[in-house]
Amino acid sequence: MKEIKIFCFGFGQVAKNFIQKLITKKYNIKLTTTSRNESSKENFNGISYNSYLFNNEKFDNNLLVELKEAEHILVSIPPENQGDLVIKNFSIFLESSKIKWITYLSATSVYGDHKGEWVNENSKTNPISSKGIARLKAEKSWSSLEKNNKLPVQIFRLSGIYSNEKNILVRLKSGDVKLINKKNHYFSRIHIEDITNILFKSLSKFKSGEIYNLSDDKPSSSKEITLYGAKILNIENIEIIKVEAIKSERLMNFYKESKKVSNKKVKNYFNYNLMFPSYIEGLNYIRDNFT
After folding, report:
1. How confident is residue 9, by pLDDT bands cut at 50, 70 and 90?
2. CATH number of residue 153's parent domain
């Protein structure tokens, strides 16, 4: 049985799915996580682990012991105050560690708007949202740490994540969807199972200093995905609104950016075939198994 000592900064859906993958693959897992809440002992699908308090103001000093022992680190917490909290608080500890694998989960918002054109890992990064700007700054901090301290760091730029629990079908069934029609608006997404599988592959095929886009094969408009979801659920008469009528700042920022994110690098390097190459396979699977 393979053993893994993994420290997860943040324990959201990606981290949990990754740990579940390790369980499925029969790993003996020594898990430590962080949370904005008070430190506690937790259980995840049979694995007992410590969850330590860590936020922008303070952290539980007890986590330092387990951080020093960790061999793998997954960073999935977002930047705060335009800075990466892990580097801000723990870079000095990481520099003297015996880490084999550090993965920073970033986002494709670092590219900004590319007028519906394709982007790859060599494309210009020109984020326009505050979150995208913060993500790019965090990426640069991790890249500097990798270069200056010879730390094993890879960066995954995630497209919009959907899962069996969180997806357009759930929102359509709840009535929480409005159809927004904007020409030449493209975005990319990826099912969480594909993220998990690529993370797992990177355990045995790791190359420090690399950045990879994680997205599926079919960048599409929000309208296209919404209409397809409505079709397979037999839902009609979705309310149509103009972009100008959007009240949510987050959603408004979403419609300010249009790009198609290439996944060629990650598929080629890891020799990976997507479980869900597009929203069509993904949504059909969810409808058939979870609705």
Report:
1. very high
2. 3.40.50.720
CA distance 100 to 98: 6
Q: How far is CA 99 from CA 14, 79, 87, 266, in A?
A: 21, 22, 14, 23
* 48, β-bridge pairs: 43
Grouping H, G, I as helix, E, B as strand and the rest as coil, residue 64 is helix
Any domain includes 144: yes
225, part of any domain? no
pTM for the whole thing?
0.96
Range of the domain at 77: 3-166+189-216+261-275
Each residue's pLDDT tens digit, 204-252: 999 999 999 999 999 999 999 999 999 999 999 898 888 888 888 888 8
Task: Convert 167-190 to b/e letters by CB count within 10 Å (16 or more is b).
Answer: bbbbebeeeebeebeeeebbbbbb
